[in-house]
TrEMBL record:
<keyword id="KW-0418">Kinase</keyword>
<dbReference type="InterPro" id="IPR000023">
    <property type="entry name" value="Phosphofructokinase_dom"/>
</dbReference>
<protein>
    <submittedName>
        <fullName>Phosphofructokinase, liver type</fullName>
    </submittedName>
</protein>
<keyword id="KW-0021">Allosteric enzyme</keyword>
<dbReference type="InterPro" id="IPR035966">
    <property type="entry name" value="PKF_sf"/>
</dbReference>
<keyword id="KW-0479">Metal-binding</keyword>
<dbReference type="GO" id="GO:0006002">
    <property type="term" value="P:fructose 6-phosphate metabolic process"/>
</dbReference>
<keyword id="KW-0547">Nucleotide-binding</keyword>
<dbReference type="GO" id="GO:0016020">
    <property type="term" value="C:membrane"/>
</dbReference>
<dbReference type="GO" id="GO:0016208">
    <property type="term" value="F:AMP binding"/>
</dbReference>
<keyword id="KW-0963">Cytoplasm</keyword>
<dbReference type="GO" id="GO:0005524">
    <property type="term" value="F:ATP binding"/>
</dbReference>
<keyword id="KW-0067">ATP-binding</keyword>
<feature type="domain" description="Phosphofructokinase">
    <location>
        <begin position="513"/>
        <end position="588"/>
    </location>
</feature>
<dbReference type="Pfam" id="PF00365">
    <property type="entry name" value="PFK"/>
</dbReference>
<keyword id="KW-0460">Magnesium</keyword>
<comment type="pathway">
    <text>Carbohydrate degradation; glycolysis; D-glyceraldehyde 3-phosphate and glycerone phosphate from D-glucose: step 3/4.</text>
</comment>
C-alpha cells in the first residue's frame, strides 16, 4: 500500500523556465506514495544555507502553479556547493530533515553537481560524525542518498532526451515573434535578423528556422563556409527577385564561423525553444542503482544513467571546440541531425538531378487541422527535389473526382508553414460515393502516387481505394496517409497532426476567468467532458447539477470550445511534425514507386503499397491500411486500443484518487551511447 512508506522522504529543487508542472507532479506523487516532501528554495544555495529555505510541502503547496512561468521555488547559482565545505553543510541540512531522496531539476551542471554530492555522501556523513554534528545512529539511518534528475534547459542541449523542460515554451515565444513579424511586414520589403538563445546548442534556432521557413540559419554546430556573406546576400536577392517581400535570418547566440570567431546578429544585419516517473525512480532505487535522469523518448518515459548523458553532452562541446562540426551534429542525436538536413533541403530550391517519370497528387481530407499546410509544403518541395510532377487537389476526394487538380511548383507553397486550416481546401466525402470519377482522373492525369493528409476519413478513404483495386487497375498505385486531426483517432500513429495545437487551444480557453480565480483562495474544480461521452450526462446537465448543489459555496461556468480547438496558427510541434512527415512520406513513396515501376508504368497491389505514416512510440513507422483495418473500431471511428488511456492513471493520482501503485508501469533504464543516439527517432 502506498501510504505505508512513512519513513520515505523526498526533496525537490529546480532552476529554470516552465518547471512548475514538474514541481507539482513530483510533490503530489511523493505525497501520494506516502512520502514527506520538502521543497528547497533558491536551488543549491538554499540547500547549503538551510533554515527557511527547506520547507515541508503539502498537497495545496503546489496548487495553481502549473500554468505559471519560471519556477515558484526559485533558483540561484551557488559557488559554495562547488566546494567540499559547502556540500558538507548541505549534507547536514538534509540529514537534519531526514531527507535521503533528492530530485533535481536543472541543466547538466546542476545534475553533475548532484552526482558528485551523491558519490561523496558516505564520506560527508563520516565527517559529520567525527565533528560531532550527527550521531552514528543518524548516519546509519541516512546512509544512502538517491538522486534522480529532470532536465530543465530551454536550449534542449542535454543528450539522451527528446526535449528538455522549457524548450517547447521557448519555441512558442520565438514563433509568436516570427508570426508577428510576418504579419506586420507584408507591406515592406525587409530582412529581419532574429537572434535566439543557445550559446552552445543551436536547437532553438534550428527548429524555429524549420518551423518558420527561414531563409538563412546560423547554428554553432555547423558554421558556414568561408565567404558565406556573399552567398547569403546572393540567395536573399534571388528570393526577392521571385517576389518575396520578407526574408528571415535566424541566428543562435553561440553562432561561430569556421575559425571559431563569433557571428553576431549585428554583423549579419550590417552585411545584408516528467515528474511522476522521477518519484517512482527514487522509490525503486537500490544501493547499486546509478543516479538517473527521467527523459522523454517519443511518448514514453525512460530512465537514463545521469553521467552517461552528461558525458555525451560534454563530448558535443569538445567536438565543437576542436572544430569537428559534423561529429558534433551527430552527437546531438539523430533527431537534431534530421532537423538540420531537412532544413537545408527545404530552405532553397535545388534543381533535381533528373526528371522522374512519376506524378504524385496531394489532397486534404476531413476537418481542417493545424499542420496540414506544413505537410503539404514539405511534400511538394521534396517531390520537386526528387524530380516528380506534383499535383495539388482541392476539396479532398470530391475534388479528385471533379478534376480540381493543378500542377504546383516550389514557390506556390511559400508562406504555408504558419498558416492554420487547409490551404488546399478539405471535405469529408469518401471515395465510394464517386469512385468511377476518381479512377477516371487518376488515369487522365497519370497519377502514380497519392498522398492523403487528413483524419479518419483520409484513412478510411484510402482503404476504400485499396479494396477497389480488384475492380480498377488504375488504383494499383502507391498511397500514403499522413494523419491530421484534432481527434487523434487515426490508427497507426500515437500522434496526429493538429492534436498538439488543439490541446494548446484548450489550455488557453477562458484564461482570463481562470486567472482571476487563481488569485483568490477559493477552492475550485475543473470538469472536462468529451462531447459524446454519455447520452444523458450532457454539459448542460452537469452545469445544472453543480449550480444547484453549489449555491453559496461556488459558482459554475461553461465553456464549449468547439471549432476553436482547431486552432489558428499551428504550434511549433505541429509545424515541424508536419514538415518531417511530409518529407518522410514522399521519400517512402519515391522508393515504392521505383520498386513497382516496370515497362513504363507503376503497378502496385501489395499490402505495403498503401500505408499510414505515423509516430509509434519512438520511431516513424509505415503501417499498411489493410493491416490497420483489423485493429480499427469503425463504429466509433478510432483504434481498438488507445495508448493515451494510460494517462488516466496519472491524472487520477495527481488528483488524489486512492489507487494501487501496482497499476503504475515504471519507465525502463536505457543507456546513452553514440550508437543509441544514431537510432532513427520520430521527430
Amino acid at each position: 500500500a502506498p501510504h505505508s512508506r512513512g519513513h520515505f522522504r523526498v526533496t525537490l529543487w529546480g532552476a529554470g523556465s516552465r518547471m512548475n508542472a514538474a514541481v507539482r507532479a513530483v510533490t503530489r506523487m511523493g505525497i501520494y506514495v506516502g512520502a514527506k516532501v520538502f521543497l528547497i528554495y533558491e536551488g543549491y544555495e538554499g540547500l547549503v544555507e538551510g533554515g527557511d529555505n527547506i520547507k515541508q510541502a503539502n498537497w495545496l503547496s503546489v496548487s495553481n502553479i502549473i500554468q505559471l512561468g519560471g519556477t515558484v521555488i526559485g533558483s540561484a547559482r551557488c559557488k559554495a556547493f562547488t566546494t567540499r565545505a559547502g556540500r558538507l553543510r548541505a549534507a547536514r541540512n538534509l540529514v537534519e530533515h531526514g531527507i535521503t531522496n533528492l530530485c533535481v531539476i536543472g541543466g547538466d551542471g546542476s545534475l553533475t553537481g548532484a552526482d558528485i554530492f551523491r558519490s561523496e555522501w558516505g564520506e560527508l556523513l563520516e565527517e559529520l560524525v567525527q565533528d560531532g554534528q550527527i550521531s552514528e545512529e543518524v548516519a546509519q539511518e541516512n546512509s544512502r542518498l538517491n538522486i534522480v534528475g529532470l532536465v530543465g534547459s530551454i536550449d534542449n542541449d542535454f543528450c539522451g532526451t527528446d526535449m528538455t523542460i522549457g524548450t517547447d515554451s521557448a519555441l512558442h515565444r520565438i514563433m509568436e515573434v516570427i508570426d508577428a513579424i510576418t504579419t506586420t511586414a507584408q507591406s515592406h520589403q525587409r530582412t529581419f535578423v532574429l537572434e535566439v538563445m543557445g550559446r552552445h546548442c543551436g536547437y532553438l534556432a534550428l527548429v524555429s528556422g524549420l518551423a518558420s521557413g527561414a531563409d538563412w540559419l546560423f547554428i554553432p554546430e555547423s558554421p558556414p563556409e568561408d565567404g558565406w556573406e556573399d552567398l547569403m546576400c546572393e540567395r536573399l536577392g534571388e528570393t526577392r527577385s521571385r517576389g518575396s517581400r520578407l526574408n528571415i535570418i535566424i541566428i543562435a547566440e553561440g553562432a561561430i564561423d569556421r575559425s571559431g570567431k563569433p557571428i553576431s546578429s549585428n554583423y549579419v544585419k550590417d552585411s545584408s525553444k516528467m515528474g511522476m516517473e522521477a518519484v517512482m525512480a527514487l522509490l525503486e532505487a537500490t544501493p547499486d542503482t546509478p543516479a538517473c535522469v527521467v527523459s522523454l523518448s517519443g511518448n514514453q518515459s525512460v530512465r537514463l544513467p545521469l553521467m552517461e548523458c552528461v558525458q555525451v553532452t560534454k563530448d558535443v562541446q569538445k567536438a565543437m571546440d576542436e572544430k569537428r562540426f559534423e561529429e558534433a551534429i551527430q552527437l546531438r542525436g539523430r533527431s537534431f541531425e534530421n532537423n538540420w538536413n531537412i532544413y537545408k533541403l527545404l530552405a532553397h530550391q535545388k534543381p533535381a538531378q533528373e526528371k522522374s517519370p512519376f506524378s504524385v497528387a496531394i489532397l486534404n481530407v476531413g476537418a481542417p487541422a493545424a499542420g496540414m499546410n506544413a505537410a503539404v509544403r514539405s511534400a511538394v518541395r521534396i517531390s520537386i527535389c526528387q524530380g516528380h510532377t506534383i499535383y495539388a487537389v482541392s476539396d479532398g476526394f470530391e475534388g479528385l473526382a471533379k478534376g480540381q487538380i493543378r500542377e504546383v511548383g516550389w514557390h506556390d507553397v511559400a508562406g504555408w508553414l504558419g498558416r492554420g486550416g487547409s490551404m488546399l481546401g478539405t471535405k469529408r466525402t469518401l471515395p465510394k460515393t464517386c469512385m468511377e470519377k476518381i479512377v477516371e482522373n487518376v488515369r487522365k492525369f497519370n497519377i502514380q502516387g497519392l498522398l492523403v493528409i487528413g483524419g479518419f476519413e483520409a484513412y478510411e478513404g484510402v482503404l476504400q481505394l485499396v479494396e477497389a483495386r480488384g475492380q480498377y487497375e488504375e488504383l494499383c498505385i502507391i498511397m500514403c496517409v499522413i494523419p491530421a486531426t484534432i481527434s487523434n483517432n487515426v490508427p497507426g500513429t500515437d500522434f496526429s497532426l493538429g492534436s498538439d495545437t488543439a490541446v494548446n487551444a484548450a489550455m488557453e480557453a477562458n484564461v482570463e476567468h481562470l486567472t482571476d480565480k487563481m488569485k483568490t483562495d477559493i477552492q475550485r474544480g475543473l470538469v472536462l467532458r468529451n462531447e459524446k461521452c454519455h447520452e444523458h450526462y450532457t454539459t448542460e446537465f452537469l452545469y445544472n447539477l453543480y449550480s444547484s448543489e453549489g449555491k453559496g459555496i461556488f459558482d459554475c461556468r461553461i465553456n464549449v470550445l468547439g471549432h476553436l480547438q482547431q486552432g489558428g496558427a499551428p504550434t511549433p510541434f505541429d509545424r515541424n511534425y508536419g514538415t518531417k512527415l511530409g518529407v518522410k512520406a514522399v521519400l517512402w513513396m519515391s522508393e515504392k514507386l521505383e520498386e513497382s515501376y516496370c515497362k513504363g508504368r507503376v503497378f502496385a497491389n501489395s499490402d505495403d503499397s498503401a500505408c499510414v505514416i505515423g509516430l509509434r512510440k519512438k520511431v516513424v513507422a509505415f503501417s499498411p491500411v489493410t493491416e490497420l483495418k483489423k485493429v480499427t473500431d469503425f463504429e466509433h471511428r478510432l483504434p481498438q486500443e488507445q495508448w493515451w488511456l494510460n494517462l488516466r492513471l496519472m491524472l487520477k493520482m495527481l488528483a488524489n484518487y486512492q489507487i494501487s501503485l501496482t497499476e503504475y508501469i515504471s519507465g525502463k533504464m536505457e543507456h546513452v551511447t553514440r550508437r543509441t543516439l544514431s537510432i532513427e527517432k520520430g521527430f
